[in-house]
Automatic annotation (TrEMBL), chain A:
Keyword Electron transport tagged: no
Species: Gadus morhua (Atlantic cod)
Principal location class: nucleus
GO cellular component: transcription factor TFIIH core complex; transcription factor TFIIH holo complex
Pfam families on file: Tfb4
GO BP annotations, alphabetical order: nucleotide-excision repair; regulation of DNA-templated transcription
Protein name per its UniProtKB record: General transcription factor IIH subunit 3
Entry's localization field: Nucleus
UniProtKB/TrEMBL annotation, chain B:
Gene that specifies this protein: GTF2H1
Name this polypeptide is given: General transcription factor IIH, polypeptide 1
Repeat is among the record's keywords: yes
InterPro entries reported in the protein's UniProt record: BSD_dom, BSD_dom_sf, PH-like_dom_sf, Tfb1/GTF2H1, TFIIH_BTF_p62_N
Region listing for Disordered, in residue ranges: 332-352, 372-398
C-alpha cells in the first residue's frame, strides 16, 4: 500500500492530432468526444483515489504541445494544483470541486486548441517526443517543489494515449526522452487506439510500463480504468495483460527495412541489408579477400526485461 | 638363433665371473654382449609377463650383481636403464622385474646387521627384498646398487608423479572439468586417455616455462660474514668455505686471475689466502705498501675502474659528458661550491681516508652488482680489453665512434614520433540517417491535402459543440466485452502462458540438464574434430565416438528424459540434445556411405 504521504503524479499525454480525429469523426460522429470523456473519467478517478494524487494533462498536436490542465489561462487563480480557488464555477451535481474544475478546464482548453488549429507547414505528425519532454519537465519541477516545500517524495508516471502513427523523424528525441525517464524511474504507459507503435513499445519495455493496444474505442474508459489506474506498487498483485514482445530489430539505412542479420560498417557503424564495397555514409572502401568473408553482424532479438 | 644367444650369454656370465672382480668392468662387458644380442630383433620387454627372458633384452645394463638372494633363492641382480630385475641362478629368465617409475622408495638394512639387504617398495605397496650374500663384497655390492638407484629413481619418479599431480590439480581447480570427468569417465562413456588426450597438450607448455630457475646472486656481506676468530695467540683465524671463495672470485675477477696465476705454482691455497687477508688490498685503508704485495696490482686495476683524467678527456671529446656534474676536470670551478676533485692537495688526511673508504664501499657494491650481471658474459670477459677488471659496462660504449655516441645519448624514447596504429578518419556524408528510427520510410497511409482540410474542419466543428458528458461514457455491453477481453484467457491476455517454462522446471532438473549439455558438448566436440577424416586413426576415432555418443544417449540422456516426463511436464526439454546427436549420426552415416561408394 502506498503510504499516506506519498504524492503520485499522473501525466496524461493525449494525442489530439486533428487529422486522425477528423477522419475518425467522418466515419463515426460521436467517437472523438467520447474518447475525451473517457480520458477525463480516468483523470477524475486518479484524483479521487487519494487526496495526494495529482494530475496533469497535455495535448499533443502537430503544431505544439499544450498543457490542458493545469493551465495558466484559466481565470480561476493559481490554486489549480491544490484545489483552492476564489470562485468555483458551480457544477450542479455535487461533485468534488477539484474534479469539476479539472473537467471544465480540460474541456475549455481542448476547444481552444482545436479552434486554433491551422495547417501551416507540411508536417502532419504529432509532436509526441516534445510532449513527453514537457511531461518530464513538469514532473521534475513538481518533484523539486514538493521535495523542498513539503519534504515529500513524489512518484510519477506518464500515460500516453496514442492515435496517429509514429513519426520517424522524432526517433532520436524519443529515445532520449525514454532513457531520461528510465533514469528518473518514471513509468511510461501506452494505450494505443489505432496502429501499433514500435517506439512506444520500446518505451514501455525500457521504463517498465504497460503497453496496450485496444480493440475498440467505445470502451476506452473501461480499459483505462482497468489497466492504467493502478500504480506501480499495486500492479504486481493484479492480473494484467502480459508484456508485449518488443521488436528491437534495427532498420537498415538504405531501405529502412527491419533486419535481423545485416552488414555493419566498422567505421561509422551504419547498418545495411546488402553488401556494398563502399559505405555510403562515410565512404570507406572495404577491402575483402573473398566474397564470403564479409563483415556481418548478427542482430539478436533483445529479451524483454 | 635364440638358443645360441642364450647360451652365449650364460657362458659369458661365467667367464666374466671368473675373470673379473671389478663390478664396473663386469657391467661393461655384459653391456657389450647385450648390445650385440640386441642387434637381433627381439620382442620388447613386457612387464605384464612375470618372467622375461634375458635374451629378449633391448635395454642397456648398468650394473650386474651376483650372489643376490631373493626369497631364499640365489640369483643375479641386474640394474638397467629403466628397470631393475633379478633372475635366479642358472636360469636365464627374470622372475622379478620392476620399472623405476613403479618404485616408490628403497630401504637398506642398518649397518650393524649381519644380513645385508636392500628393499624396494613400490607404489602399489608391494615390496621386494634382495639379500646380498656375496661373502667378500656384499656391502660394496649393496652400496653400489643403492647409489645407482638413488641416482636413477628421482628421474623416473618425477615423470610419473608429475603427470598425475598435474591431472589432479586440473581437476581440483576446475569444477566444471571435474563434473565432466565424473560424467564421462567414471560412468565409462569414454576412457580416461581420450579425456586427457586433448587437455594435456595445453598444460605441457606451461610446465616448461616454470622450470626456468633464477640464478642465486651474491650476498653483499659475504666478506663480512667470514668473521675472523681470534686464535688465542694474537692471530686471526679465517674460515673460508667454497661458497665464500666463489663469491670472492665472482666479485673480484682480479683476485681470481691472481689465484689462477699463483696457485698451485707458487703458493699453496692456504698461503694464497693468508696473503690475501694480510694484504692491504683487503683492509679498509688501502695505502699501498710496496710492490711485493701480489695484490697491489689488483688495487691498481680497481683504481682504473674509477674515472681517471684520461677517461674524462675521452668523455669530453665524445661529447657525451654532462659538464655540470663532472668531477675532476682540471679547469673546474664550480659556481658557489668547493671543487670536489679528489686530487686536491689541500684536503686533510682524515677527509682523504673517509673518501677512500667511501670509494672502496661504492666500488665493492658496484663489483657485486656487476658480478650478477656479468654472469652471462663471463667467457667473453677475458677477451675484452680493459673492461674485465672493473665490471663497468659503459666501457664498451666508449669504443664507439663519437658521432654515434652523441646520437645514442640524445635519443630518448619520448621524443620520438609516435607510431600509433593507423586509424581511419570518420567522414560522415549522410549523418541524418542515424536519426531515422526503425520506422518504414514511406508511411502506408497517404492523405491528400483535401482530406486533411476536411478532417480538420470536421473535428473543429465537432469540438466546438463539445460538452463533457461523463455519466454516459460507457455502455454496459461495451464494458462487459472489454472486461472479457482483459480477463485471463481473453483476447488481450494470450501471451502470458507461454513464458513460464523455466519456472515450471525446478532448478535441480535445470542443473542436471546443464551437466548433460556440457558432457554432450565434450563428446560432440571430439566427434566433429575428426572431420575431415584424413587418417586411419581418425577413422577409428570417428567410429569409436559414435559408439560413445550412443552409449551416452542410452546411459544418461534417456533416463533423464524419462524422469522428467514422469515427474513434471510434457515439455520436451531434451529435444535439442537429441537433435544434435542425430545430426552427428547422420553425418557419420553419410560419410560411411560415401566411402563405400568410392570403394566401389
Amino acid at each position: 500500500m502506498a503510504s499516506e504521504d506519498e504524492l503520485n503524479l499522473l501525466v496524461i499525454v493525449m494525442d489530439v492530432n486533428p487529422i486522425w480525429w477528423g477522419q475518425q469523426a467522418q466515419r463515426d460522429m460521436s467517437e472523438s468526444t467520447e474518447c475525451l470523456d473517457a480520458v477525463m473519467v480516468m483523470g477524475n478517478s486518479h484524483m479521487a483515489m487519494t487526496t495526494t494524487n495529482r494530475l496533469a494533462v497535455i495535448s499533443s498536436h502537430f503544431q505544439d504541445s499544450h498543457f490542458l490542465y493545469p493551465c495558466k489561462n484559466w481565470t480561476g487563480g493559481d490554486g489549480a494544483w491544490d484545489g483552492t480557488m476564489d470562485e468555483a464555477p458551480y457544477c450542479g451535481d455535487g461533485k468534488y470541486e477539484l474534479l469539476s474544475v479539472a473537467n471544465n478546464v480540460v474541456a475549455e482548453e481542448m476547444k481552444r486548441v482545436m479552434s486554433t488549429t491551422e495547417m501551416k507547414g507540411n508536417s502532419t505528425d504529432t509532436l509526441l517526443a516534445g510532449s513527453l519532454a514537457k511531461a518530464l519537465c513538469c514532473i521534475l519541477l513538481q518533484k523539486i517543489v514538493t521535495f523542498f516545500s513539503a519534504g515529500q517524495e513524489m512518484k510519477s508516471r506518464i500515460l500516453v494515449i496514442k492515435t496517429a502513427e509514429d513519426c520517424a523523424r522524432q526517433y532520436m528525441n524519443f529515445m532520449n526522452v525514454i532513457f531520461a525517464a528510465q533514469k528518473q524511474n518514471i513509468l511510461i504507459d501506452a494505450c494505443v487506439l489505432d496502429s501499433d507503435s514500435g517506439l512506444l513499445q520500446q518505451a514501455c519495455d525500457i521504463t517498465g510500463g504497460l503497453y496496450l493496444k485496444i480493440p475498440q474505442k467505445i470502451a476506452l474508459a473501461q480499459y483505462l480504468l482497468w489497466v492504467f489506474l493502478p500504480d506501480l506498487e499495486q500492479r504486481p498483485q493484479l492480473v494484467l495483460p502480459p508484456p508485449v514482445h518488443v521488436d528491437y530489430r534495427a532498420a537498415c539505412f538504405c531501405h529502412r527495412n527491419l533486419i535481423e542479420i545485416g552488414y555493419v560498417c566498422s567505421v561509422c557503424l551504419s547498418i545495411f541489408c546488402n553488401f556494398s564495397p563502399i559505405c555510403t555514409t562515410c565512404e570507406t572502401a572495404f577491402k575483402i579477400q573473398l566474397p564470403q568473408m564479409m563483415k556481418s553482424k548478427k542482430k539478436k532479438l533483445k529479451q524483454s526485461i | 638363433m635364440a638358443v645360441y644367444v642364450k647360451d652365449l650369454i650364460r657362458i659369458s656370465h661365467n667367464w666374466v665371473d671368473t675373470h673379473t672382480c671389478d663390478v664396473t668392468t663386469r657391467g661393461w662387458i655384459l653391456r657389450l654382449l647385450i648390445n650385440i644380442t640386441a642387434s637381433v630383433v627381439y620382442p620388447p620387454l613386457d612387464d605384464s609377463c612375470p618372467s622375461t627372458t634375458m635374451a629378449s633384452l633391448s635395454e642397456e645394463v648398468l650394473l650386474v650383481l651376483k650372489k643376490v638372494r631373493q626369497r631364499k633363492q640365489d640369483g643375479t641382480l641386474y640394474l638397467m636403464a629403466e628397470r631393475i630385475a633379478w633372475g635366479p641362478e642358472g636360469k636365464d629368465r627374470f622372475t622379478v622385474s620392476h620399472l623405476y617409475s613403479d618404485i616408490r622408495c628403497q630401504k637398506i638394512s642398518p649397518d650393524g646387521k649381519a644380513k645385508i639387504q636392500l628393499q624396494l617398495v613400490l607404489h602399489t605397496g608391494e615390496s621386494s627384498t634382495f639379500h646380498f650374500s656375496n661373502d667378500s663384497s656384499a656391502l660394496t655390492d649393496r652400496e653400489a646398487a643403492k647409489d645407482l638407484l638413488q641416482q636413477l629413481l628421482p628421474k623416473f619418479k618425477k615423470k610419473a608423479n608429475k603427470e598425475l599431480e598435474e591431472k589432479n590439480r586440473m581437476l581440483q581447480e576446475d569444477p566444471v572439468l571435474f563434473q565432466l570427468y565424473k560424467d564421462l569417465v567414471v560412468s565409462q562413456v569414454i576412457s580416461a586417455e581420450e579425456f586427457w588426450a586433448n587437455r594435456m597438450s595445453t598444460t605441457n607448455t606451461e610446465n616448461t616455462l616454470s622450470d626456468k630457475k633464477q640464478d642465486v646472486g651474491i650476498s653483499a656481506a659475504f666478506l663480512a660474514d667470514i668473521r675472523p676468530q681470534t686464535d688465542g695467540c694474537n692471530g686471526l683465524r679465517y674460515n673460508l668455505t667454497p661458497d665464500i671463495i666463489e663469491s670472492i672470485f665472482r666479485t673480484y675477477p682480479a683476485v681470481q686471475q691472481k689465484y689462477g696465476e699463483n696457485v698451485p705454482h707458487n703458493l699453496t691455497e692456504k698461503e694464497f689466502w693468508t696473503r690475501f687477508f694480510q694484504s692491504h688490498y683487503f683492509h679498509r685503508d688501502r695505502i699501498s705498501t710496496g710492490a711485493l704485495d701480489i695484490f697491489s696490482e689488483c688495487a691498481k686495476q680497481d683504481e682504473k675502474g674509477n674515472v681517471t683524467h684520461l677517461e674524462l678527456y675521452r668523455y669530453i671529446r665524445s661529447g657525451v659528458l654532462n659538464v655540470l656534474t663532472a668531477e675532476g676536470l682540471p679547469k673546474e670551478k664550480k659556481i658557489g661550491g668547493k671543487p670536489a676533485s679528489t686530487s686536491n692537495p689541500n684536503r686533510t688526511g682524515k677527509e682523504n681516508s673517509n673518501s677512500a673508504i667511501i670509494k672502496r664501499f661504492n666500488h665493492h657494491s658496484a663489483m657485486i652488482l656487476a658480478a650478477g650481471s656479468r654472469r652471462g658474459d663471463a667467457p667473453n670477459d677475458q677477451a675484452s680489453e680493459t673492461s674485465s677488471t672493473d665490471g663497468n659496462s659503459r666501457d664498451s660504449d666508449l669504443f664507439q665512434p663519437p658521432i654515434k655516441k652523441v646520437w645514442w645519448s640524445i635519443d630518448y624514447l619520448d621524443l620520438q614520433r609516435e607510431d600509433g596504429p593507423k586509424t581511419v578518419a570518420l567522414n560522415l556524408k549522410k549523418s541524418d540517417r542515424y536519426a531515422h528510427g526503425p520506422v518504414p520510410l514511406e508511411s502506408q497511409k497517404y492523405t491528400t491535402s483535401q482530406d486533411i482540410i476536411n478532417s480538420i474542419t470536421c473535428i473543429r466543428h465537432e469540438m466546438a459543440n463539445y460538452v463533457p458528458n461523463l455519466a454516459q461514457v460507457l455502455t454496459s455491453s461495451a464494458v462487459s466485452s472489454a472486461i472479457a477481453a482483459l480477463s485471463p484467457g481473453g483476447v488481450l491476455m494470450q501471451t502470458g502462458t507461454q513464458q513460464a517454462i523455466n519456472q515450471m522446471v525446478p532448478s535441480e532438473v535445470q542443473g542436471e540438464l546443464k551437466h548433460l549439455y556440457i558432457a554432450a558438448g565434450e563428446l560432440l566436440r571430439h566427434f566433429w574434430t575428426c572431420f575431415p577424416v584424413n587418417s586411419p586413426f581418425l577413422e577409428e576415432k570417428v567410429v569409436k565416438m559414435r559408439s560413445n555418443l550412443e552409449r551416452f544417449q542410452m546411459t544418461k540422456l534417456r533416463p533423464f528424459q524419462e524422469k522428467v516426463q514422469r515427474q513434471y511436464l510434457s515439455a520436451n526439454i531434451t529435444g535439442h540434445l537429441e537433435e544434435m546427436l542425430q545430426t552427428a549420426y547422420n553425418k557419420l552415416h553419410a560419410w560411411q556411405t560415401r566411402r563405400m561408394m568410392r570403394k566401389i
